[in-house]
Design brief:
The protein is α/β, with parallel strands linked by helices. Helices cover about 45% and strands about 15% of the residues.
């Protein structure tokens, strides 16, 4: 298997399925996989209306592949440069998507794999899944934006608990804390995640893109800036065919038929 094969892509209906496919190493990430994810996000935006991100095998992603010394932070390797060149662009690309992102998590989502999973707009976990931020165990600081993602989602105190104590965060507790969307039986995970992705793909694409932008920005800006973004969107989105169809369907008491324009 080549490094390109470590990330698979297929299009089913309006859903682009991107799969981390290095199950033998628990889908641990390499720079090549990060670059491939960016390319596939570009492709998905052109031809799909939602993305479903998942991992093969018994884990979603075990973090960064530490078997390659040249890509592992250490005395002779600047970890900041590795992040800047490979992994920060990956998470930034997911943050800036114009279509919804569903993430399906089974087993471990650890380290940078945890950050990757938390980029989802809808995050679905199997009941045996868990998060792990092991940085404190090995004397590293967090990466991939995970400190910011945790703090904005569950608050500073709980974020500190996850990062400082470096204990497993089980699926049910993550749900109770509001970190994920839902938890389902392991056997039902794939079907449930796909059904949510299909539901989003059938939605009003332009409006959903606006929801993503507003929600991401809300955690990063002043309230006045959020109001200004909403004001701009209310100038453009009502002119879309989907918005007009949605209004007609509401008045006619029928399900809308969105076309993504």
């Amino acid at each position: 298997m080549t490094e390109v094969d470590d990330v698979r892509y297929d299009l089913t209906g309006g859903v682009a399925r991107i799969t981390l496919a290095a199950a033998s190493r628990l889908n641990a990430l390499t720079p090549a996989m990060a670059a491939r994810l960016i390319v596939l996000c570009d492709l998905a935006e052109r031809e799909a209306r939602a993305i479903l991100l998942s991992g093969d095998g018994r884990a979603f992603c075990a973090g960064v592949d530490l078997s390659d010394p040249s890509a592992t932070p250490g005395p002779e390797v600047d970890g900041g440069l590795i992040l800047e060149a490979h992994y920060n662009p990956m998470v930034q690309r997911l943050r800036d998507l114009k279509i919804p992102l569903v993430v399906q998590v089974q087993g471990a989502a650890a380290g940078l794999g945890m950050a990757l999973s938390l980029m989802g707009d809808v995050i679905v976990l199997g009941e045996s899944a868990y998060f792990l931020a092991p940085y404190a165990r090995i004397g590293l600081a967090p990466d991939g934006g995970v400190a910011a993602l945790l703090t904005r989602s569950i608050g500073r105190t709980r974020a500190m608990q996850v990062l400082l104590l470096a204990d497993k965060l089980p699926a049910r507790r993550a749900l109770d804390w509001g970190l994920v969307t839902e938890v389902t039986a392991d056997a039902d995970l794939s079907q449930r995640a796909l059904s949510l992705a299909v539901r989003l793909a059938e939605g009003p694409t332009v409006a959903l893109s606006g929801v993503r932008e507003l929600c991401w920005a809300a955690g990063e800006s002043r309230f006045e800036e959020s109001l200004a973004r909403e004001r701009l969107m209310q100038t453009t989105i009502p002119a879309t065919e989907d918005c007009q169809e949605g209004n007609r369907a509401f008045l006619e008491k029928r399900p809308p038929r969105f076309i993504g324009r």
